[in-house]
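User: For my dataset I need records formatted as: sequence, then structure tokens, nothing else. Please produce one.
Assistant:
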Amino acid sequence: MQNLILYALCVGSIISLTAALTNNLSYSQINFEASSDSGATQTFTSTNASTQSNSASVQRNSLSLSAANLKQPQILKINAPSARLQGEISINGKVVQRLNDSSSKLDLSPYLSVGQQKIEISAQYSPSTAAVSVEIQGSGNNISQQTSGSGTLNYTLDLDIQ
């Protein structure tokens, strides 16, 4: 009888663990075209690949811009109204701004040039139940992401500037 109970507990644990691991993977992709005031059409592709490992979630987007758009502000906003952020924003591996408050705003244009660019936000926030939003606005484009529940913000924006 004890062996049967032990066997049932083991099977139940394996099923629960498998279900938990399966639910931690998600993927979505959004494509749309936006026209800027200059009449040029820009293609925006957003790919969110979220995987959870040790309560850390990674969000990733990609965006194509015309080099002419860099003459206008491309604003990155990070907002966590009920939390405190500790971290940094880096562009192509170089830290350009430290995060030490509940919100931050940065014009990306002075840091960008033609070619492949990578913008990374790495931060911790508390309380971990708070919601944190990342928004990029400029030249007819608007990207918005939100995360909560882990206490960690890991966001990457891959830019292709032509």
